[in-house]
Write a structure and sequence with these properties.
By secondary structure, this protein is an alpha+beta fold. Helices cover 25% and strands 25% of the residues. The strands form two sheets. Strands 2-3-5-6 form a four-stranded antiparallel β-sheet. The protein is globular and about 50 Å long.
């Protein structure tokens, strides 16, 4: 069997093998200063005060997030989407029946194309990506309820492997291991479906 060269994988797998030059911008996190308050002792009044005790102000009411239920649904669909993709990539299986249950449109087509390329090259991808700082927002005035899901994706434990040998595939050293991704999902009668997945090429 002919083993694929690293450059073949770079063109095949946009998520794992994004060979973007990383310019690490180190952000200084400035901790907020916590000053010590000085106790100012008031002078004792010469006569007892006759003023009534102040009426405590009412605590501001905290309104529930009206989108909380929808966000919970989107988060569950997002988690399932990546679980299904991880399973399909572990076998390099473009015909995984669950793919069409979580993705459609560009997201489905591009994923299946990547899986075809990985299979032809003799690679699988083991492990799972990790996600943090997930933010969910909704597009106003969309025909179908549409969510934008932005997060920081960590692929350091989602490793391309040479299927026959079980060894890790050679990869470009400058690739991003943590980067921002944006997913677009729509609410269909059978649940939320991912329409598009866009790696932003920005480290996070």
């Amino acid at each position: 069997m002919t083993t694929a060269r690293p450059h073949q994988m770079r063109t095949t797998h946009r998520r794992l093998l994004t060979s973007v030059a990383v310019v690490a911008a180190t952000t200084a996190l400035t901790a907020g200063c916590t000053g010590k308050s000085k106790d100012n002792k008031a002078a004792a009044p010469s006569a007892p005060a006759s003023s009534a005790a102040p009426t405590p102000s009412a605590a501001p009411s905290v309104s529930a997030d009206p989108e909380a239920a929808d966000k919970a649904e989107v988060q569950a669909a997002f988690t399932r989407y990546w679980a299904v993709l991880s399973k399909a990539y572990a076998e390099a299986d473009p015909k995984d029946a669950d793919l069409g249950k979580v993705a459609t449109g560009n997201a489905l087509v591009e994923t299946q194309q990547e899986l075809v390329g990985l299979r032809k090259s003799g690679y699988v991808v083991k492990g799972q990506p990790q996600h943090s700082n997930t933010q969910i927002a909704f597009k106003p005035d969309a025909k179908l309820k549409t969510a934008l899901i932005t997060d920081c994706m960590d692929i350091s434990q989602w490793k391309p492997m040479i299927k026959d040998s079980g060894k890790e595939a050679p990869l470009p050293s400058g690739r991003l291991l943590r980067y921002v991704t944006t997913l677009t999902a729509e609410k269909w009668p059978n649940g939320w479906m991912v329409l598009e997945e866009k790696p932003e090429g920005k480290a996070c």
